[in-house]
Write a structure and sequence with these properties.
Length: 178
């Protein structure tokens, strides 16, 4: 059976799940991190990252700087979506990662983006959801486009504290996917 017809689900990432994200970045190869625009030297230590999550999860959702979801295929976690730069009730930036390399070109990403975006719109009461990919990460940009996210522009920036300065492509959803 192809992954396209298998059961997918998206659920909230709990505090007990955050090591999935932490381990993903710390275990990724340098080549993979470069493709994502991430500088290994800028990653918080696992303990620092865990402390950040413990503090953030202790706050009401309206005050958090982050909101995260897990992606499941046939009840197995295969990736996650996170938001940062959250301006509750207005906008947030979405980040998307399939943790299983053999599933990255299987058409799942666009399906997970649509499901995740709908949840982010609902939970964070958003008017718009942005995504900013490394411009050289063609697969990521194609996937975002396939999910119906609209191109805004490309520019040179440092998208987050774990990224090196780079050219990024900014995408926008200005309404909740149905």
């Amino acid at each position: 059976m192809s992954a396209r017809s298998e059961s997918i689900d998206v659920r909230e990432m709990t505090l007990e799940d955050v090591n999935i994200r932490i381990d993903y970045f710390h275990a990724s190869s340098d080549d993979h991190l470069r493709m994502l625009g991430v500088d290994r030297a800028l990653l918080p230590t696992p303990a620092q990252w865990r402390d950040f999550y413990e503090q953030d999860y202790a706050k009401p959702i309206e005050q958090r700087v982050n909101h995260s979801l897990l992606w499941l295929l046939e009840d197995e976690v295969i990736g996650f979506a996170t938001t940062d730069h959250v301006d509750f009730g207005i906008e947030a930036f979405m980040h998307l990662h399939i943790t299983q390399p053999h599933l990255r070109s299987d058409g799942l990403g666009a399906r997970f983006i649509v499901r995740s975006a709908a949840i982010f719109f609902d939970v964070l009461h958003l008017k718009r959801l942005l995504c900013e990919s490394n411009a050289l990460n063609a697969a990521s940009n194609r996937t975002v486009q396939a999910a119906g996210v609209r191109y805004l522009f490309s520019h040179h920036t440092q998208p987050s504290p774990i990224n090196y300065p780079q050219i990024t492509t900014r995408w926008i959803l200005d309404e909740r996917p149905s």
